[in-house]
């Protein structure tokens, strides 16, 4: 079963195309370094819930859209190896992403798969 890194972030709608460009580069980098899959999704049906919701989780504002993403790996050990290479890759150097979304409101974590049907 694959190991999964999951991400949720709020991106200003005005920055969506810039985000997509950065994501395409990031996806290429992760895949070249060994990730099995790299997926980015734009919120389409993510209502602001009364208590909890994707928009609430990232404190999305009226002019922002929620992005839900995940990357899969063979194992956590392999993920750790790949992420070290990714973080050192010059294609992802710089602060371009800081101009596109607020990383302080990003939610992320690693997950061990236990079921796939």
What does the model show?
The protein has helices at 16-32, 54-57, 76-88, and strands spanning 3-12, 37-42, 64-73, 107-112. 29% of the residues lie in helices and 27% in strands. It has a single domain, classed as Alpha-Beta Plaits (2-Layer Sandwich). The chain is globular and about 40 Å long. By secondary structure, the protein is α+β, with helices and mostly antiparallel strands. The mean pLDDT is 95. The chain has a 4-stranded antiparallel β-sheet. It has 3 helices and 4 strands, in the order E-H-E-H-E-H-E. InterPro entries: Dimeric_a/b-barrel, DUF1428. It comes from Neorhizobium petrolearium. This is DUF1428 family protein.
Give the class from helix and strand content and strand pairing. alpha+beta
So what's the CATH class? Alpha Beta
Strand tally is 4
In the CATH hierarchy, the third-tier topology is known as: Alpha-Beta Plaits
Radius of gyration: 15 Å
Helical content (DSSP H or I, runs of 4+) = 25-40%
Number of helices: 3
The shape is: globular
Encode the helix/strand succession as letters: EHEHEHE
- Termini separation comes to 11 Å
Strand content: 25-35%
When the domains are counted, the total is 1
């Amino acid at each position: 079963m694959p190991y999964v890194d999951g991400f949720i972030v709020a991106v200003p709608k005005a920055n969506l195309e810039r985000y997509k460009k950065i994501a395409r580069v990031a996806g290429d980098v992760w895949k070249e370094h060994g990730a099995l899959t790299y997926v980015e999704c734009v919120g389409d049906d993510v209502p602001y819930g009364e208590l909890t919701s994707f928009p609430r989780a990232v404190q999305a504002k009226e002019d922002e859209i929620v992005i839900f993403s995940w990357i899969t790996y063979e194992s956590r050990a392999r993920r750790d190896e790949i992420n070290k290479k990714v973080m050192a890759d010059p294609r992802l150097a710089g602060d371009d992403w800081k101009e596109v979304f607020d990383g302080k409101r990003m939610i992320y974590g690693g997950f061990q798969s236990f079921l796939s049907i």
